[in-house]
Amino acid sequence: MKRIGASLGALAALACVLLAVALAAPRVLGLTPFVVLSGSMEPTYPVGSLVYVRSVDASELRVGDPVTFTLEGREAVATHRVIEVDAESASLRTQGDANDEPDGSPVQFASVIGSPAFCVPLVGYAVSWVSRPPGLFVVAAAIACLFVWALVSSRPFGRKARSARDVA
């Protein structure tokens, strides 16, 4: 029983450390994580991936570069590929790799967040789930249960263990 508790505790601790590293370490390096929610950039960035974006000067982006930007008039974020740069109007034309048509409106340089440095497939699903109240509740409850289990399993139950002197 103690081994099971120790193993579960170790697995939970490892999962927490990996999630913290996946989210915090890149931020220290100046990267911002975003979860890929649509298939518009597949296969480059599959749905459920965690894309790490580094800040860039929008005027330095070139045709073919992937770019992450805020959608005009919305709080949503998209990552698509630059298909045209218009320095005069300080805007970009973009298109998702899996899309047949370019995006409807140009992206203003001011809307550019950055350019993806790398992505980690599937991790975005976990981050997205934990970021919502039900997932956060389940994780907090699991950690609390493992903490209680660790406390309970480390205590002897029933009669106290007899010392050699008590047995004789």
Number of domains: 1
Amount of beta strand = 15-25%
Q: What's the helical proportion of residues?
A: 25-40%
> Which structural class is indicated by helix and strand composition?
alpha+beta
Supply the CATH class. Mainly Beta
EC number: 3.4.21.89
Pfam families: Peptidase_S26
Protein name: Signal peptidase I
GO molecular function, one term: serine-type endopeptidase activity
Blueprint (SSEs and pairs):
Layout: H1 2-28, E1 31-35, E2 50-54, E3 66-70, E4 77-86, E5 91-95, E6 107-108, E7 112-120, H2 123-130, H3 133-153, H4 164-167
Antiparallel strand pairs: 1-2, 2-7, 3-4, 3-7, 4-5, 5-6
Helix pairs in contact: 1-3
Domain Peptidase S26: 14-82
Enzyme class: hydrolase
InterPro entries: LexA/Signal_pep-like_sf (IPR036286), Peptidase_S26 (IPR019533), Peptidase_S26B (IPR001733)
